[in-house]
Predict the structure.
Amino acid sequence: MNRVNIITLGTKNIVESHDFFKKIGFDTSVRGPEESPFIIFFRNEGSRIALYPLDELAEDVNKDNPPEIKGGFPGITLAYNAKSIDEVDNMMKLAESAGATIVKQPTTTDWGGYGGYFTDLDGYYWEVAYGEDWEFDESNMLVIEDM
């Protein structure tokens, strides 16, 4: 097993989360009625993302003993790799205007890049970052060479 095909984010309000992600530029495919979809897939390049109701996702993990839904840092971050400093700044402004909370303004990083963090409507942390030496493949995925 050497790939991740779908990352599913449990959401407290699937309709509001869907609206947020559309505002920041994601193309989506809704399953079920628009006013109460049962799952939403993102038609993005690279790995796929899905939105799914949080309580139902917990039950999907274990219907008889679902994991407890707690607040705070979920221990996962998602990343958007930009191709310029301006793209980082523009993406952060777009996310904030769509309802995101900026938790770290873009700045020079300790690894020599540039980036910041926002949280989406369900509290997931998104890093928006740029590296001067980064290369992207034909699917706009960051090329990560073996070291």
